[in-house]
Amino acid sequence: MAAQPRTNSKKERRQENEKLILAAAEKVFSEAGFGGATMQLIADMAGLPKANLHYYFPTKESLYRQVVENIFQFWLQAADVFDDADDPAEGIGAYIDAKMEISRRHPSGSKVWATEVMHRAPVIQDYLETTLMEWTEGRAAIINRWIAEGRMDPVDPDHLLYMLWATTQHYADFSHQIETLNGGKPLDDAQWEAAKASIKRIILKGIGVTE
Amino acid sequence: MAAQPRTNSKKERRQENEKLILAAAEKVFSEAGFGGATMQLIADMAGLPKANLHYYFPTKESLYRQVVENIFQFWLQAADVFDDADDPAEGIGAYIDAKMEISRRHPSGSKVWATEVMHRAPVIQDYLETTLMEWTEGRAAIINRWIAEGRMDPVDPDHLLYMLWATTQHYADFSHQIETLNGGKPLDDAQWEAAKASIKRIILKGIGVTE
DNA sequence: GTCTATAACCTGATAGAC
DNA sequence: GTCTATCAGGTTATAGAC
Fold first, then answer.
1. Does residue A51 sit in the same domain as residue A73?
2. In this predicted model, what pLDDT tens digit does every residue of B48-89 receive, in sequence order?
3. Residue B64 CB contacts under 8 Å (≥ 6 apart), including other chains
4. In this structure, are residues B121 and A180 in contact, taking their beta carbons and an 8 Å threshold?
5. Does residue A73 fall inside a structural domain?
6. Looking at CB atoms within 10 Å, which of A168, A207, B197, B205 has the fewest?
7. Which keywords are on file for this protein (chains A, B) (predicted)?
């Protein structure tokens, strides 16, 4: 047989396969949970024999761990917009937009994250205690500074952050419920914009930065 | 042996055992998911031999179904406060209080519900399409009436309801994360009150019914 | 109605040929 | 590096004694 164009080195091929497996795993874990997911199902979805999964990821748990860690890294990047603005309306508004965009584009990842936390974070407890704790404290400090400067109402920063996380992630984690209540159809572009606008309107007014 | 006081009829005994099993099942399902939960673990937690579980509930799925249906019924009862008030501040405020109380008292149930919805509602899809849909439409109508009467800002009722669900249930579903960020301790009485007050303050002001 | 012992099945993981 | 065949362990569910 004529050799097909092999632009892929071994390293590139490995990265491609790992990416394929991780994408399939995220989907299956999000739909069936860790216990309900099977390596066979992930392999089928990735288009690879089951044994290959164990070649790239020695155990089911190591594969799951990689999925969760990737989600967490991705999740942190949305936080940058918080720091880039020193106006609460702009900072919190942009954070809502960023988190809603993640909920829309990566609902599976959000679901895996939610399940992991609900199961008492068996694999990412250390991240909660270090990275997430530090991130939360830093953002709370920013909010407290805005409050001290009289730019927003004196609300509890922690509970405000929980409200932001809860509200934005709800559109990913409960997407099936929202879809059902929407007549069985996913939210369209206009509905996603309306959702963002509603959330920003209520929260920004609620903390005294608009109107 | 002297007969111990048997105030229990067979029917009462059956109800007691079923209650015991259902409580254990809710806990185990919430902590391990459907796939991760085992009948053995539920039996141990209920203090019964595994075979007895299959006597009361023929299959693991039937037990799980009963758990989810119970949660849903319980969940609906919090909605009553919504109808009993015709003032939005009172109605929505009381609804937030009621849902927060459920999150505090029944975190396991909330987690099972969340997981069930995330897995595309394999056993309660019919409830979503009927009971929940009707409930949501009814409450949206009430909100729209309040808006028409000029008692609150013109916000989208659906997105407001999602925000209420998301925010209140977050304290149950993500209780482990909140606990970790709280220094490893569950929220105490004062912190729960602060959480309720924060949520009510932001949302009620955000929809234009206070201040 | 209750419980022990067992059956039937499925899953994660691996050995070993290619 | 890849894949088929297989093993070892654990799970649901049930048969059958009490």
1. no
2. 999 999 999 999 999 999 999 999 988 888 888 888 888 999
3. B25, B29, B34, B123
4. yes
5. yes
6. B197
7. DNA-binding
- With bands split at pLDDT 50, 70 and 90, how would you rate the model's confidence at B7? low
Residues B206, A208: C-beta atoms closer than 8 Å: no
Q: Select from B167, B73, B68 the least CA-distant residue to B113.
A: B68
Please state the rounded mean pLDDT for residues A53-63: 97
A1 within some domain: no
Nearest nt to the A9 alpha carbon by C1' = D1
Residue B41: domain span: 10-58
Question: Do A52 and A76 fall within a single domain?
Answer: no
Is A63 a domain residue?
no
The dihedral through the CA atoms of A143, A147, A152, A156 has a sign that is positive
CA at A74, C1' at C15: how many angstroms apart? 38
Assign residue A47 the CATH number of its domain. 1.10.10.60
Q: Which CATH number does the domain housing residue B110 bear?
A: 1.10.357.10
**Residue A147 covered by a domain:** yes
Q: Are residues B163 and B103 in the same domain?
A: yes
**CA–CA separation, A11 and A24 (whole Å):** 20
Do A60 and A155 contact (CB within 8 A), yes or no? no
Burial class (CB within 10 angstroms; exposed 0-12, middle 13-18, buried 19+) of A178: buried
For residues A52 and B61, give the distance between their C-alpha atoms in angstroms, rounded to a whole number: 32
Please give the helix or strand (H or E) that residue B203 lies within, else none. Answer: helix B189-206
Strand, coil or helix: B155 = coil
B54 touches strand D (CB under 7 A): yes
> Could you tell me if A34 lies within 8 Å of chain B, comparing CB atoms?
yes
B60 touches chain A (CB under 8 A): no
For residues A85 and A22, state if they share a domain: no
Q: Does B125 touch chain A (CB under 8 A)?
A: yes
> Do residues A150 and A196 share a domain?
yes
